[in-house]
Write a structure and sequence with these properties.
Number of helices: 5
Order of helices and strands: EEEHEEEHEHEEEEHEH
Protein name: Prolyl oligopeptidase family serine peptidase
Number of domains: 1
Organism: Vreelandella zhaodongensis
InterPro entries: AB_hydrolase_fold, BAAT_C
Distance between the termini: 30 Å
Pfam families: BAAT_C (PF08840)
Strand order of the largest sheet: 4-3-7-8-11-12
């Protein structure tokens, strides 16, 4: 059986995965979590999206690292992701609709990007956003060299002197614990979270949902009973059909 998925290089940015043929295809930019760009999970998800008719771009935004080390998320300039989104929109194989999917730190990244682009009325914002295991506030910087499980020798909380994100060369409005103003984003939103998440409490997504509904929004929300920060195999078998259905309805032309 011939593999019906084709890799294409987005000039200056990296590899994409999509169906065979000339397209154009609805596109999704994927944002990884603290596992970093080298881990490959976002590439796995990109292949899954490609198998269902999307052109998927796993964008590696973490710095440093290698095949054995995740690198770090420190002072990442979010306007760089604006440039990546615009490049994806201009890619010859992409139609006019582009979505954004993030998990964990990638979910935080996606929510921040959507809210900041909406606030500043920037062109090229994602047409739809889906996030899994998202926080409702800005979190601190991440450096894999210092990361340990709680209780392990050398474990420490985040270094409060370091920031994860910048916007227009500033940390203003991006300090840890600052609420993410996702209610500013006007497009379709999907929020999912495991009810037994031991890293970021499901209460974070519940607060996001509450705030959105208070602002007259109607997000698509799914809570996965008994699932941790990353779903088990059984949880993923529930999550991915819902995710694909959401992107199909919000990105694929009728």
């Amino acid at each position: 059986m011939m593999l019906n998925i084709k890799q294409r290089f987005l000039p200056g940015w990296g590899v994409t995965y999509g169906p065979a043929g000339d397209g154009p295809f609805p596109a999704i930019m994927l944002l990884h979590g603290s596992e970093g760009a080298w881990a490959g999970w976002s590439h796995r998800d990109a292949v899954l999206f490609a198998a269902h008719g999307f052109l998927a771009f796993p964008y590696g935004y973490s710095s440093g690292g290698n095949m054995w080390n995740a690198g770090h998320i420190i002072d990442y300039p979010l306007e760089r992701s604006v440039e990546a989104l615009r490049a994806l929109r201009d890619f010859q194989y992409v139609d006019e609709r582009v979505g954004l999917y993030g998990v964990s730190r990638g979910a935080e990244h996606a929510l921040l990007l959507g809210s900041l682009m909406a606030r500043d009325e920037l062109k090229g914002a994602p047409d739809t956003i889906a996030v899994h295991s998202a926080p409702d506030v800005v979190c601190g910087a991440f450096d894999a060299r210092n990361a340990r499980d709680a209780g392990d020798p050398g474990w420490q909380a985040w270094d409060v002197s370091k920031r994860a994100w910048t916007w227009r060369d500033s940390h203003e409005d991006l300090l840890p614990t600052t609420p993410i103003e996702i209610e500013r984003y006007p497009g379709p939103l999907m929020l999912t979270h495991g009810t037994k998440d031991r890293m970021w409490s499901v209460e974070m997504t519940k607060r996001l949902e509450k705030r959105l509904r208070e602002h007259g929004r109607n997000p698509t929300v799914h809570y996965y009973e008994g699932e941790d920060h990353i779903p088990s195999s059984a949880g993923q078998n529930i999550h991915y059909p819902l995710l694909l259905d959401f992107f199909t309805k919000s990105l694929v032309k009728p």
